[in-house]
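Worked example 2:
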Amino acid sequence: MSEQDAEPTPREQLTKAFHEAEKLDTEGEPMESVVTLDTLLTIHRLVGDEVGAAKATALLAQAFLLDPVLDAPEWNPDQFDFRDADMERAFKRIFDDLTPFICLYERLRTHLEAERTQRLMTKAVAPVTLPYLGKTFTSHPEVESIDAVRRDMGTYLGTGDAFEWTEQVSDDGREVKYRFDRCGYVEVLQAYGLHRAASMVCYCDHIHFDTHTPELYFEREHSIGSGDDYCDHHFILRSPDEEYDEDARYGDTNGVEYDARAMIRDWETRYEKGDVSW
């Protein structure tokens, strides 16, 4: 058999060497607000499906306009173990940005039972998270180096102050492994009771990379949002010489209390149908 006709090698049979990589520069600016008009319209549709359009309008007006001014949740920095003053400021910015989302959670709790509230807030995370992923992680179909993804990660992380992470790059330059030990957005959501929503923040990575970056194979076994101590992102530039187990990418969804894979598929189907975009 010629080399050109050779069968691709399953990933699990490959052994690649990795080395600790010097972090690329982050963007240097704080992460952008997650709340936009398009976000609100999508959340309105989701809430309206549960409680009706009129009540959804009232709830969102209270949560996003009135409550942040008149009845905002209290910022409690003692809930967190900050590395330094820069991390504390970054977490506070995230809290301020998520305050309307937390207010919506508190409002829904007065109208729905706990299970429905958690389920609805989990759905509502996607339109909050996916647009920012779409803006910062773009497709690079022609690249031969994983550094394009690493540069996008630098844009995504903003100043980087709300995170703690290390990264390892394969010696062939086609893979990068991140280990995140801290994530401000997930930790703030968890601290204010939105545990399922926090896990969906992580699972939005699967939705985005599955639909928008066909040149990448993205897998993760652990995620802070699902209750693990760390996230282990693994990005691989796909190669015709390698065979990939598409179902093995979602190890971080195992063991959570809801069908995360089904929710991931649901958002991917919405995107494919043109019901949503980011």
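The chain has a mean pLDDT of 92. The radius of gyration is 20 Å.
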